[in-house]
Amino acid sequence: MSFQVFGLPVSRGVAIGRAVLVASSRVDVAHYFIDEDRVEGEVARLRVARDAVADELTTLQRDLPAEAPAELSALLDVHLMLLHDDTLTGATKQWIHERHYNAEWALSAQLEVLARQFDEMEDEYLRERKADLEQVVERLLRAMARGPASSFAPAPGVRPRDFAGEDPLVLVANDIAPADMLQFKRSVFTGFITDVGGKTSHTAIVARSMDIPAVVGAREASRIIRQDDWIIIDGDAGIVIVDPSPIVLEEYRFRQRQSDLGRERLARLRHTPAVTLDGERVELLANIEMPSDAIAALEAGAVGVGLFRSEFLFMNRDGELPGEDEQFEAYRAAVESMKGLPVTIRTVDIGADKPLERMSANELRHDHALNPALGLRAIRWSLSEPGMFRQQLRAILRASAYGKVRLLIPMVAHLSEVRLTLEALARARQQLNEAGRTYTDIDVGAMIEVPAAALMLPTFLRHFDFVSIGTNDLIQYTLAIDRADEAVAHLYDPWHPAVLGLLARVIAQARAANKHVSVCGEMAGDPDFTQLLLAMGLRSLSMHPSQIASIKQNVLRTEARRWASHLEAILSSDDPQRACEDVSRLLSPGRRAVTATAS
After folding, report:
1. What is the C-alpha separation between 455 and 458, in angstroms, rounded?
2. In this structure, are 19 and 73 located in the same domain?
3. Residue 457 belongs to what domain range?
4. Are residues 309 and 366 in the same domain?
5. What is the mean pLDDT of the chain?
6. Residue numbers annotated as active site
7. CA-CA distances (angstroms) from residue 399 to 10, 59, 345, 414, 561?
8. Per the count of CB atoms within 10 A, which of 167, 200, 300, 506 is most buried?
9. Confidence of residue 360 (pLDDT cuts 50, 70, 90)
10. DSSP per residue over 87-155, as a string?
């Protein structure tokens, strides 16, 4: 029976496919696809874990004291029966063989299937056995965590489509950790649905970067959607349609084809220079997470990398930090791939929605922090780990010998942080000199993403060569809105007059000081803001490669000076979004052409 689920639209377009559920478990598990030659190895890991748990349960039962109630022994019998039931371990093997899930994911997927069956049982006693099933699965997951590890590195080119026949797949989850998103990004799902999250949550950002439809904040979606249900994601309206009728399915397939044609037309602009109608050249840069993303940036027509999020090199490593040489090789690969174009590397932005699996002993863990977004993150974390920080700085400096590199410091708010950062950089240079390592002078910039930094910009500009505005956090901190919390997501408003006022102020002050300024947050890749940012005087935007073509199209259609003449009216309006739409209608090329013809 068809039904709809509503959430927040965060990535436009239509996706149609079968549901792949990532179940929430009390034990964190990794989710990734394996290739054919690793299938039997994952099955063996499952078998070893089952045997280990069976031994545990048998030993517990054997060692029960004589005075123990008979119910306790009977309960252990139930757990042993569930453990050996083919609907658990046998079906889990099927997920591994047919879908190529890693063993932990396969077990979580089967738990989801069986848990729903228990929920639908009429007998109350049988319904309550779901808790026993969950305990058995938790034991299995813990046993696998103790046993031989499976390499958390899916083979290149392993895609879900390889194992699902002709059916495309959409991912459904309560939430998706950044580490998992990094793996799923390589798997090319056709869409994402999550129960939680806001328009600039990490899931939403990655979905937009992959240019695939997504709906977040859909509340109970992962509970009411079943494995392999046919799903339509309407990324424009924020609607998820489950088990659609043939008529609805055909209508959305038509919309999907129209969207694909639009993308093909935009792709033709790849090598067209981004110049406004009145001759203003605009720099369109790419945001990347991994060195391999640099190739996609070049193919999309980016004229450089405006943001290399280095923290993704630190993820999926069981908390072990990458060493200096490993980082250097990654940065050098990105720099060389860009063939002389500039690469801006942001120092690690760990914390908030991007925690490491294991942090240092002297640090509060992310999940125990009262408010991680206001805690030890970004430059604060780097300065608290001086050895790690100097390692990263040395690796970035060494990569500068292979191309044009710029260094970007995230979440700067205090002048003391600026001084400590520059001292750490000077020390890293000294260490490279002493070791005889080659490097070049690099520009150092600050991320403007905290209101304090925006208000102190003239002071900061005396210490930095450029600034890059991170609009996602700037909006979050200006409006006191957790951007990952769907309960307040409706209050996250990039059109808020205070946000636009800060943006205009930062751009104007940087230009007045003759310092390069760019925007690397989500606003840069949103076509609704292109003209307004150009009107503010911005001439550099950094976004995911998939967004460059649509932003370039907007640039080519814009007269920057005419828009600038309306900037004051837009910024002073109680409703800047509507004011911007009014100016857009007034200055649209079509309207001017009609006016010129009439005259």
Report:
1. 8
2. no
3. 268-594
4. yes
5. 86
6. 202, 520
7. 35, 56, 10, 28, 39
8. 200
9. very low
10. IIIIHHHHIIIII-B-HHHHHHHHHHHHHHHHHT-S-HHHHTTHHHHHHHHHHHHHHHHHSPPPPS-PP
